[in-house]
Amino acid sequence: MEYATRLIKGFDPRLPLLVQDFLKLTDEQRDTMEKYLESILSSRIPYQFLPLQDCVDLSIFLIRTTMEIQKWTVDVRGVGGAIDIATITRTEGYRPVQQKTIIGQNYKRFLGGSNGTSNK
């Protein structure tokens, strides 16, 4: 979430608190500064006008970006693997768009052969 927030807001979510500590700002000054930074640095994405497909694409982009950056950082890796995507609309309600398949034990390994047949 941190990396997605950086892309959307234009800065690390910890920045306002760090600046507040460094400059000894009041909470009100920090809030004003944060709103100012967002107004200048945030991505200019017209969310209310995005087609549903663009919303799905943006969601996947933010998840993939987080997954990729976590490959190189020394931090908790909380994102990875297949991505599940669903939409919720007034007309269709909940609708899965992309779902990973959950499988059990690898069938080929279980049987002992590379082609799914037993070596016996």
Please give a quick description of this structure:
The protein has 120 residues and is mainly α. It folds into 2 domains: 1-44, no CATH class; 51-98, no CATH class. The protein has 5 helices and 2 strands.
Q: Which helices and strands appear, and what pairs or packs with what?
A:
Blueprint: H1 2-9, H2 15-23, H3 27-41, H4 52-70, E1 85-89, E2 93-98, H5 107-111
Antiparallel strand pairs: 1-2
Model description:
A hairpin with a 3-residue loop joins strand 1 and strand 2. The N and C termini lie far apart (51 Å). It is built from 5 helices and 2 strands. The protein has 2 domains: 1-44, no CATH class; 51-98, no CATH class. It has helices at residues 2-9, 15-23, 27-41, 52-70, 107-111; strands at 85-89, 93-98. The longest helix has 19 residues, at 52-70. The mean pLDDT is 87. It has a two-stranded antiparallel ribbon with strand order 1-2.
What is the chains' assembly state?
A: single chain
In whole angstroms, the N-to-C terminal distance is 51 Å
Lateral strand order in the biggest sheet = 1-2
Any idea how many domains? 2
**How helical, in percent, are the residues?**
40-55%
The low-pLDDT segments are none
Give average pLDDT, whole number. Answer: 87
How many strands, which pairing sense, and closed or not: the largest β-sheet?
Answer: 2 strands, antiparallel
Number of strands: 2
Molecular shape: flat
Strand content: 5-15%
Tag the structure with descriptive keywords.
mainly alpha; 2 domains; 120 residues; flat; 5 helices
